[in-house]
Amino acid sequence: MESVSIPVPHKVPFRQGATWIQHAFFLVREQPLTWLLFAAMYGMIQLTVAALPVVGQFLSMVLVPVFAGGFVLAAAKAMRGEQLRPLDLFLMLKPHWQRLVMLGIAYFGLLVLLLMMMAVLLLLLFGDTLQTGQAFERSPVLMLLMTVLMGGSLFVASLSYWFAPAEIVLRDGEPLPAMRYSARAGMANWGAMLYCGLILAVLFGLALLPFGLGLLLWLPVMFVTVFMAWHDVCGEGMPRHR
């Protein structure tokens, strides 16, 4: 059951999307080696799980919110001025990991549902064209519509996920209510979230350039950005960096 004490999400200007990333970088910069270690552990575990036959990709996706919850808890601890320890990414998750796993399963189900709905819509609109081997080449409109639907579906799904791990680990929320609350907060601030996502996408591309080593910095900044966004939209407002 959702708590009546959960505050109404704030509506922030779109430029806050960049501010979230800036504050995340400041927080990561205070204890860089520990955050880099967190990123390395996350990357190694995800690569190992993803390599498993049959279920690897599914398990890898389910683990994303688990680690997201760990990074959020670490960010909250760091913002209080406390020293992070190498195993904090795992130790602080004990009361929350089952609900975070369920969140991952629910999010996966939502993505599958949205993609199925998109496929049905395309069949209804362009059934004859889709039967040809060169459907997309022969129909630029179909290609454009497919791109818009795919991007729009993923963005809508991301709105229902973005704040959910933080709601679970910081407010002891349940997966489905946390997703509903995240969707509510996300729809109210879709501009800031889209702006933030675009900046993170550009930074991701840059992080790949030096043999992917930049991901060791990009990953913690990305996860801490989620915490900063939650703190700004769902919490007490934008914290001041020291």
TrEMBL record:
The lineage of its organism: Bacteria, Pseudomonadati, Pseudomonadota, Betaproteobacteria, Neisseriales. It comes from the Bacteria. This is BPSS1780 family membrane protein. InterPro entries: BPSS1780-like. The chain crosses the membrane at residues 33-52, 58-79, 100-126, 141-164, 185-209, 215-233. Keywords: Membrane, Transmembrane, Transmembrane helix. It comes from Vogesella indigofera (Pseudomonas indigofera).
